[in-house]
Amino acid sequence: MLQSAVSCLAALFLAIIPVLAAIPTISAVGNKFFTSNGDQWYIKGIAYQLVPTDPLVDTDQCKRDAKQMQDLGANAIRVYHADPAGDHQGCMNAFADLGIYLLVDLDDFPTQILPDSPAWNQSQLDAFSAIMDEFQQYDNTALFFVGNEVLTTAEVSNAAPYVKAAVRDMKAYRDSKEYRKIPIGYSAADVPGLRPMLQNYLACGDDDAERAEFYALNVYEWCGDSSYERSGYSELQKNATGYNIPIFVSETGCRVARPRLFSDQAAILGPDMMDTWSGTIVYEWIQEENDYGLISYGAKVDPMVSTAALDGFPRSGTPMTVSPDYENLKSQWATLTPTGVKLSDYSPSASISPPACPTSTSGGWIVNGNAALPSVGKTLDSAATESVAMPTSTGSASQPSASLTGGGTVAGGKEITGMCLGLLGVMLGAVTWL
User: Fold this and answer.
1) How far apart are CA 367 and CA 330, in angstroms?
2) Cα-flanking dihedrals φ and ψ of residue 41, to 5°?
3) Quick one: which of 22, 50, 110, 379 could link to 55 by a disulfide (CB 3.0–4.6 Å)?
4) Is 134 a residue of the active site?
5) The model's pTM
6) Active-site residue, 149 included
7) CB atoms within 10 A of CB 58
8) By C-alpha distance, which of 186, 171, 277 is closest to 234?
9) Catalytic: which of 210, 213, 221, 251?
């Protein structure tokens, strides 16, 4: 009898442990992120894409990396591409156990919204939904992106309504499935010709169902020993003041001046910006040809000899820190612990409201912000860009995402010339999708 009672108590204890250890979920309230415990959440994240297809299926590798990220001080990873059919439980649990959240892009190479020929069709919606279906089940899934750097010049701003339509339809899908309200938003290239029109466009309008739930910027303007004013961060803060949804830096880490000091972290997570911005993601975890890595898994090898190395850089193993960049970022984050405001003390409706929708201007932003969004499989109504010439070229952003394991435009300072095997796999995947 006693043995039976002890066994019962032990079983109850083991059942309770996962509940007690569950990681708090993240939600967007007003222009801030909060945990389910009521604490404001700030992102200290790392771009994490070890391979082009899916870095979240190798549990042992995730455990090694999560432990190293905990040492660094990270609380989030951004994954640009994942396979909805993969088994992600081991990796997601490994990161959750160490308090690390996932920010994941819903698009992939063959399903992304393109600037030259933008579209939002059923195939894209289905593919985005499959990623959401897979990752919504994990408490440490924090945010979903519907796109990354789709717009790189004002001349292709007619693609913006398709991005906003994706936000609208993915919000509707999430709610129809009664999933947790994981915030849905967009990661933008920091293009002066789009400031602040794109930012305001995605957050404007009377219909909450169409508005993004966060906005993020890939920013590479703070290089070396710069400053809040010289870098242009003060202008970013000016444009974001009073913004109605959370805003954060979804990529940073300029490498024009070496070593990287990451002194911009003190601005984003300190008094200059912490009341407005919700944190930052540093590019990137793994060392590649683009030379942005914080760790490596060993010396570069001949990719023709070791196919697992893709462009010559090993994609798994024991993470070894890249000095002094890793130590510099770790030192910055160790001193930056913003606490923000408690959810119980926060009243967003009293201080913020949606911005005015931007209107089209000749030679600049070409979308009338209050025009109807395209429905699935439909094109943009002509009223959205009336009296404005359509684009003839896309141009390029000053520092867009470029790693083929990342997901942005291959251009600028992060260009990769290798990874032929990875690209071949992506092309085969695109053929399959089509």
Assistant:
1) 42
2) -110, 125
3) 50
4) no
5) 0.87
6) yes
7) 19
8) 277
9) 251
